[in-house]
Amino acid sequence: MALVAALAVGVGGSVGALARYAIGNAIEQRGLDTFAVNVLGSFALGVVLAVGLGDTARLAFGVGFCGAFTTFSSFAVESVRLAEDENVEVAAVYAAGTLVAALLAVALGSEIGATVA
Q1: Among the four residues 7, 39, 66, 115, which has the most C-beta atoms within 10 Å?
Q2: Do 108 and 100 meet the contact criterion of CB atoms below 8 Å apart?
Q3: How far is it, in rounded angstroms, from Cα 28 to Cα 72?
């Protein structure tokens, strides 16, 4: 079972990483791509957890796809870069806004997922 779980995470992670890369190329505005994937990924994770998938599917989509698709490290880098560019207020709004939007997205995803399940 451990091999199946590892493969599920690996396949999901590969797809999530490719999706993240595609969105990064499609949205060329600094920080906006990171914001978008983090909010979309939070929404997707909320849905995944609420719909009651089996263990392997939950690992593939939740841990693999959402884990590779979302990007906390890029969020941190974008926040620091904004602050370094003497945009401390913008950096604070970006950081707080991303956190609030992601939390709302996971709650909305959970609600929608619960109605589907």
Answers
A1: 66
A2: no
A3: 18
For 31, what's the count of Cα atoms within 13 Å in the CB-facing half-sphere?
A: 16
Pair of tokens at residue 26: 């499609």
Q: Say which residues have a Cβ less than 8 Å from residue 101's Cβ, sequence separation at least 6.
A: 35, 38, 39, 42
Residue 52's pLDDT is 86
Q: Residue 45 above 70 pLDDT?
A: yes
Q: What confidence tens digit (pLDDT) does each residue in 69-90 have?
A: 999 999 999 999 999 998 899 9
Tokens of 27: 């949205």
Torsion over CA: 12, 14, 16, 22 (sign): negative
Q: Is 58 exposed, middle or buried (0-12, 13-18, 19+ CB in 10 A)?
A: middle
Flag whether pLDDT at 116 surpasses 90: no
With the C-alpha atoms ordered 26, 29, 33, 36, is the resulting torsion angle positive or negative?
negative
Nearest to 107 by CA among 68, 50, 53, 34: 50
